[in-house]
Amino acid sequence: MAMLSSLTNLDAAASRQSTSTPPRRRVAPVLAGVGYSLAWIAGLTVASASTDVTSTGAALVADSAGHEVASITQYVLTEGVAAVLLAVVVVLLGRAVGEHRGSRLLTGTGLVAAGISLVQCALGVTLAGWAAPGGHADVAGALFETVNRLDGLKMFVLAAMALAGAGLARRAAILPHWFGYLGLALAVTLVASGVGYLFLMSTAALAAYVSLPLLLVWVTTAGLLVRRTGR
Fold first, then answer.
1. C-alpha to C-alpha distance for 139 and 68, rounded to whole angstroms
2. Torsional sign, CA 36, 42, 46, 48
3. Exposed, middle or buried, 186 (CB in 10 Å: 0-12/13-18/19+)?
4. Least C-beta-crowded within 10 Å: which of 36, 54, 202, 221?
């Protein structure tokens, strides 16, 4: 009877903890996960995107006329806002998973990727707001190359994040097994597109047309899974 009473008290305490979770804490991962995808979709809508990683500075200067605001907005949304939201998702996911092997790797790689993205945002805004419209072809070309190579590096880091998530899906109760398969598919496509961007190979960079949608699904799903735990 004493054991039964203890178990009942534990269940009641867990129930109280779950129901007492602040509403904002429950909503935050959903907003961050969905917001990440919306930021990318909005950014790709305001300005055209291309996987051509070999554009010259002269071409960038010629194409910048009349598109400065749209290009700046795209960098802010896809590299700035998205970076902050990614950081929120990986921190909350790592906290929800708990002390499992790989949770620190997932959080750490996600934060590193977010940091790289913020650097890209700053460089991209400089490119779109000053170098290209100002006719500084050499600077524009150098900035464009740097942003692309950083994109490739970021994709490799994101691939490590996805693999860490795939490993956690086998050990953490809150992550379904299919989330692991999603992470594996994401990692493979990110490595392929990362090669294209890091080494400026436009053909390989075409893999971004697959890796980006998978990344949006992964981050949004991660936010929803954290919401389900109530942590």
1. 16
2. positive
3. buried
4. 54
For the stretch 39-48, pLDDT in tens is 999 999 999 8
Long-range contacts of 198-204 (CB under 8 A, 24+ apart): 198/149, 198/151, 198/152, 198/153, 198/155, 198/156, 199/152, 200/53, 200/54, 200/145, 200/148, 200/149, 201/53, 202/51, 202/52, 202/53, 202/54
| Angle made by CA atoms 131, 133, 137, in degrees to the nearest 5 | 50
Query: pLDDT of 81-135, one tens digit each?
Result: 999 999 999 999 999 998 777 899 999 999 999 999 999 999 999 999 999 999 9
Cβ atoms 186, 218 nearer than 8 A: yes
Name the residue with higher pLDDT: 228 or 145. Answer: 145
What is the rounded CA–CA span in Å between residue 127 and residue 117? 15
